[in-house]
Request: fold
Amino acid sequence: MDFSWTIVVAGALVGLAVGLTGMGGGALMTPIMVMFFGVNPTAAIGSDLATSLFMKPFGAAVHQKAGTIRWDIVRWLLPTAVPAAFGGALLLQAFGDGEQLQERVKYVIGGALLLAVTGMIARMWLDRRRGLGSDTAEDADVRVRPLATLVIGLVGGVVVGMTSVGSGSLIIVMLMLAHPRLKANHLVGTDLVQAVPLVGAAALGHFLVGDVSLGLAGTLLIGAIPGVLGGAVLSTRVGGPALRWALIVLLTGSGLAMWGLEGVPLVLVCLVAAAVGVTVTLRTRRGEERGVTAPERTPTMTP
Reply:
């Protein structure tokens, strides 16, 4: 594929979203390549994985320096995640070949996107719940759950290998469910580190079957690397809930479009999702404001 500034910009926007939200780029990059640039679904998956392989170490290095990586959890994730990701890439060949394969892969990607949306909503709900009460207080020394972590690696690896979606959205949600008291920054750091060999194994599988375009991946990286660095800087200044709901609307629309929904029904679904997001964000913001102002009013109530 020839060099294209539009693809560079697409890579930068996806990198920015990854830096801001911590969500994996596959949930955005793959559907963008398929729907806006006409890339075959299998080539989009393989090229996105190759791009992510070079993007994720930047975030992982930051967390390694900050000491927010749970290496014991990483060690229990990788034995199943790495082979599952490699196998997931090869498993795609069982869906057929030619146009038949590309059409079926669209449905697989659509399902993964909607699963990612479910994961993002679950993550926001868990984040709110984790902030309530001492019984849900975060703990950096939570004991790892080996069996559950191995299962997470297996399921997440297959999904990532087949669709490139899930390394930064589904897996982190499953880790939260298995280790509900683990500190949020330790979750993110751990997920980023395990994603490097996971994505590498999936990318290798796609490379072996000829699904990776090195030219496309290189073009995406030109924008993605500065985008992810800029997003990390902006993450401390931009409201997270509003951005996450914007991504939920985008991913819901993309997933349903992959499944063939179009026109007015697709627009209506996106509008409903946007309305829910605005309502929840405003209610959350009002609740936070009441929580801040209430203690300030207490002294004036005393006689």
About this structure: Residues 177 and 213 are 36 Å apart (CA to CA). The two ends are 75 Å apart (CA to CA). The chain is about 80% helix and 0% strand. The longest helix spans residues 263-297.
